[in-house]
Specification:
- This protein is about 35% helix and about 20% strand.
- The protein is an alpha/beta fold.
- The chain has three domains: about 5-160, Rossmann fold, CATH 3.40.50.300; about 175-185 and about 370-450, K homology (KH) domain (GMP Synthetase, Chain A, domain 3, 2-Layer Sandwich); about 190-365, Rossmann fold (3-Layer(aba) Sandwich), CATH 3.40.50.300.
- The chain is elongated, with a radius of gyration of 29 Å.
- Belongs to the TRAFAC class TrmE-Era-EngA-EngB-Septin-like GTPase superfamily. EngA (Der) GTPase family.
């Protein structure tokens, strides 16, 4: 079990914080410096994770007794996993405190500087003086008034390894995972062995069939200038450089008012195919202006949570600069901001070879397993930089994030108030994930989930 140790000079409030975190009066507290001379330990629960909390003796060289206490405390810190260095917010920082803090930092453990006794605006102003310690994590608290403790608890939680949900608290999340497993999702390590399923979508006569023929180097699909030539989906399995691809040229989609009879059936078939696909090649005719129908078709890719590549076909006929068209696409297709854009000429075969590399890259991102520790570091940094807005005066917390699905990456945000996470904040978190992981071409699914109802008193 991991250890969290409270260290600092005498009389800064370590034992009081120890009792507060343990939710029990275990350590003796008094105003007499040096009251704690040995270490107190207690197993505590922080939002569903257990750890050993250690209350240490004060770091003091004023006598031989206290020097021995200091040596014991530093040895205990070396054997701990997380260190909380406490200072007295009623006093100005001194060189001795700074030197002790730097000595603790040399242990290279997750370390927070906790300024206790911050009870007033004047104390808050004084607390700013501790900024010259250069600490990465600083918390202003008042143990006596129980302020700032929640934020400190959350930091400790994030630094405890292997987030686990207690059996008696996990019913809703276990059910959630059971539902996911029942869907028959593929285990991530098997994705390299699977065929990549690619749906080619777009409105009528944008060159989807020509693109398929160019990709498989064969006149597999019938090509003509007559809109709506392709009614049944055209499937082609093709091997390229040792990888198997399943391409499906779907029927071109018209405006809703022009869809009738057999073409309506073809649209339904197209949606069925996209349900099974991994990646959508959204084909646009770059020789014509973008239309509202292009946007609606693009929405199918997001509806089925597919990896997406935007293919600007007929580039040899285009009268617009590439950067200019990309800007217009980004403005109109904001929901596909993550999709890479490539210009090609399917009939002429130009740049078709580059599509395979792009498909492989998007598929890798689409099926990847995100590193759990980095995932939680990104979420923690994001919430520290821009805290989640409070709900009716109460804090909204993300305890940790866990990836529970792939194709695309599906991430559960384990929270105390999942219904209070606004869509705009989810978008902010999504952007932060994209900044820190290679997720080009793939959507990200964020699902706020309640950690458990049993001990969540704030709900």
């Amino acid at each position: 079990m991991q250890k969290v140790i409270l260290v600092g000079k005498p009389n800064v409030g370590k034992s009081s914080l120890f009792n507060r975190l343990a939710k029990e009066r275990i350590a003796i507290t008094s105003d007499i410096a040096g009251t704690t001379r040995d270490t107190n330990k207690a197993v505590i629960d922080i939002d569903g994770k257990e750890c050993v909390l250690v209350d240490s003796g004060g770091l003091d060289d004023s006598s031989e007794l206290f020097r021995n206490v200091k040596i014991k405390t530093l040895n205990e810190a070396k054997n701990s996993d997380i260190i909380i260095y406490m200072v007295d917010g009623k006093l100005m920082p001194d060189d001795e405190d700074k030197a002790l803090f730097y000595e603790i930092l040399k242990l290279k453990k997750p370390t927070a500087l906790v300024i206790n006794k911050v009870d007033s605006k004047k104390d808050e102003q004084r607390a700013w003086e501790f900024i010259n310690f250069g600490a990465n994590f600083v918390f202003e608290i008042s143990v006596s008034h129980a302020t700032g403790i929640d934020e400190l608890n959350q930091w400790i939680f994030k630094n405890l390894k292997s987030p686990l949900i207690k059996a008696d608290e996990s019913d809703d999340f276990d059910d959630f995972l059971d539902e996911f497993n029942d869907e028959g999702e593929i285990d991530p390590e098997n994705f390299d062995e699977k065929n990549i399923k690619v749906g080619i979508i777009g409105r009528v006569n944008v060159g989807k069939s020509s693109l398929l023929n160019a990709l498989v180097k064969d006149a597999r699909a019938v090509v003509s200038d007559i809109a709506g030539t392709t009614i049944d989906p055209v499937n082609e399995i093709y091997e390229h450089e040792g990888r198997i691809y399943e391409f499906v040229d779907t029927a071109g989609i018209r405006k809703r008012g022009k869809i009738d009879g057999i073409e309506k059936y073809a649209l339904n078939r197209t949606e069925k195919i996209l349900e099974q696909a991994d990646i959508a090649l959204l084909v646009l005719d770059s020789s014509e202006p973008l239309s509202e129908l292009d946007e609606r078709i693009a929405g199918l890719a997001t509806k089925f949570e597919l990896g997406v590549i935007i293919v600007l076909n007929k580039w040899d006929k285009s009268q617009i600069e590439f950067d200019e068209l990309c800007k217009e696409l980004r403005d109109r297709f904001k929901f596909l901001a993550y999709a890479p854009i490539i210009s090609v000429s399917a009939l002429g075969g130009k740049r078709i070879h580059k599509l395979y590399g792009l498909i492989n890259d998007v598929y890798k991102n689409y099926t990847q397993k995100l590193q759990t520790s980095k995932l939680n570091d990104v979420i923690e940094d994001a919430t520290r930089t821009h805290p989640i807005p409070r709900d009716k005066g109460k804090s909204v917390k993300i305890y940790y994030a866990v990836q529970f699905g792939y194709a695309p990456p599906k991430i559960a945000l384990i929270m105390n108030k999942p219904k209070c996470l606004h869509f705009s904040y989810k978008r902010y978190l999504t952007n932060k994930l994209r900044e820190n992981f290679e997720l080009n071409g793939t959507p990200i699914v964020l699902i706020p989930k309640k950690r458990g109802a049993v001990q969540d008193e704030e709900q």
